[in-house]
Amino acid sequence: MTDEAPREAHGTAPAGGGRLRRRAGRVGYLGIVVLVYVYLLTPLVIVVLASVNAGEFLTFPPEGFSLRWYVSFFESEAFMGSLFFSLRLAFFATIVSTALGVAVALYVVRFAGRWRERLRLFILLPLLLPEILTAIALLFFYYNAEAFFRAMGFDLGSGVFRNSVLGLLIGHVLITLPFVFLGISASLYNFDRSLEEAARSLGASRLTTFRRVTLPIIKPGIIAGALLAFIISFDLFNISLLLKGIGIATLPIQLFDYVRWEFDPTAAAVATVSIVITVIAILITEKLVGLRSLRF
Amino acid sequence: MTELAIRGLSKRFGDVAAVDGFELRIGDHELISLLGPSGCGKTTTLRCIAGFESPTAGRILFDDRDVVGLPPERRNIGMVFQNYALFPHMTVRQNLAFGLEMRGVSKGEIGQRIARVLETVQLGDLGERYPRQLSGGQQQRIALARAMVVEPSILLLDEPLANLDAKLREEMRFFVRSLQKRVGITTVYVTHDQAEAMVISDRIVVMFDGRIHQVGAPDEIYSRPVSREVANFIGLSNFVDGRVLGAGDNGEFRLETQVGTLRCAYSETLAEGREVALIVRPEAIVLSGAAPADSAGSAGNAIAGRVSERYFLGNITGYRIACADGLVLQVQDDPWAGFGVGDEVWCTFDAAHAWIIPD
């Protein structure tokens, strides 16, 4: 048993009581970590188990094994439509917020000077405020902007922002931008500017330097940020609920609508598919740049 | 090859003048060091030459062509940075090819020139490595090779050896020196290490607070410094304050000091009665147990004192000698001189080995 003593104790010959206390502390700490993981993972496990339930209702423990709820999910036009809509929306939100994120992070880190911290906070606001608040504010803004354009005599039809995919996309970009920004600005803060100067001294223009030196070096930050943006956009609920147009539904919204009226395990199958998509996104990132780059 | 002329260069950051009225001509094949403490403006001067800073005033001429308006990439320079700045995502070969690709050199020639430069820096077999797989000294040599392979008009080095350990740093001094001589490229070398500047330079530019104090060959800077700052920054010095009594024979002056009349070589004219400082280096002083026979005569100076400290440095022995009127002289003598603390000694030095700084 003594070989389990903490390494720090080695050579200091502590009193038996102290060593015992340290051991107890370590076990207690480990226990808390395990509890946190159990707390986080149990719902996921239960959802996955419930999705293969052979019974008629969303119950746990499952009554036998069956994939029928997956079949019902893949056969449901509403669910498949919203799944592909969510994937497309997440894809475009990721593209836009990554492009914006690179530009914004470059400006804030490199050129903002004494405004840097204030700008940083400003960009991170959607992360700090409750999502529903951002959604309501955006909805208000859309309403007023459209009223303004109508007053100017433009015919906007059923609305440019409200009830439109554009409005939803802007909302998703707003929420995902802080994550992209954090990833990219972290890699820019650690960036050694003399690398760019070396490239310039060797005859590369600003643009070539950015393309051949800066971009490849901050790429892990960009990919990590883009991954987070995709996952978050794919899971976004509040803002989608307020900004979606009539007849548009993202997967989380469709799921919400479904469980209001039905209580069969299709919902669990949908949730499991979401989990799988998220895991795939993480695995792709691991393959491309390694999960280390997810540390901010 | 290229001559570099800097005319009235000034660079201000807000209210601070980082560089003030810098004037210098650097000849073809010459290696010039900018030497000074941190914050003296030497790096800013280098960055102005490179084009990373734009001067507040002044002109920078590469062979009579003013480059002040040009961005760095159009100046045809080679630069080596303190942290090497090798591109971490490229192999050694790709690092070396970068500048050649920017100049549109053909693939075949790129290969040949890289092979040749790797040979020159004696790292022929490391082409496929990444920078992180190289030691500090190897990275440094690749950085040097990357700057030289493009055959720049001017080579700029910003404290290139500062990150190396002491032993390697001394080796690399000679390597850089012989490489520069072999290629014959006009070079500006920034350093705060006076020993490095001494070994490596044709001429040294000593800077303080953005201004040039002195420009000269290493031995000239060392033995004939123009100011106390220069004398203090380069090597150890003893200062003895005094007043000019008059000119003696063969370019000597007699000074009245707190330890009696001393004689000293000086090249300029000095008015009688002027307050000056005599400077004599510790190794120029010889200790002797007895008063020299002609202490009042010919070329010698002699100051009586008592050994207050003695320390052994291996190749030399250092002493601190307490003289009259609170004057303390630092002396370096050969390690076999057998004086101990408390001994009465005479510090003698030749007038030709001392110098005058007009304060």
Q: What's the CATH topology name of the largest domain in chain A?
A: MetI-like fold
Oligomer class: heterodimer
Structural class category of chain B: alpha+beta
The helix fraction of chain A, in percent, is over 70%
CATH superfamily of the largest domain in chain A: MetI-like
Q: Into which percentage range does the β-strand content of chain B fall? A: 35-45%
Number of helices of chain B: 8
Q: How would a crystallographer describe the biggest sheet of chain B?
A: 6 strands, mixed
Q: Helix-strand pattern of chain B, N to C? A: EEEHEEEHHHEHEHEEHHEEEEEEEEEE
Q: How does the overall form of chain A come out from the CA principal axes?
A: globular
Attribute tags:
heterodimer; A: 296 residues; mainly alpha; MetI-like fold; 2 domains; 11 helices; 73% helix; disordered N terminus; B: 359 residues; alpha+beta; Rossmann fold; OB fold (Dihydrolipoamide Acetyltransferase, E2P); 6-stranded mixed beta sheet; 20 strands
Explain what you see.
The complex is a heterodimer of chains A (about 300) and B (about 350). Chain A is mainly alpha-helical. Chain A has helices at about 15-50, 70-75, 75-110, 115-130, 130-150, 165-190, 195-200, 205-235, 240-245, 250-260, 265-290. The longest helix of chain A is centred in the first third of the chain and has 36 residues, at about 15-50. The radius of gyration of chain A is 25 Å and the shape is globular. Chain B has a six-stranded mixed beta sheet with strand order 6-7-8-3-9-10, with helices on both faces. Chain B has a five-stranded antiparallel beta sheet with strand order 13-12-11-14-20, with no helix packed on it. A five-stranded antiparallel beta sheet of chain B has the order 15-19-16-17-18, with no helix packed on it. The longest helix of chain B has 18 residues, at about 165-185. Chain B starts with a strand and ends with a strand. At the A-B interface, helix 7 and helix 8 of A face strand 6 and helix 2 of B.
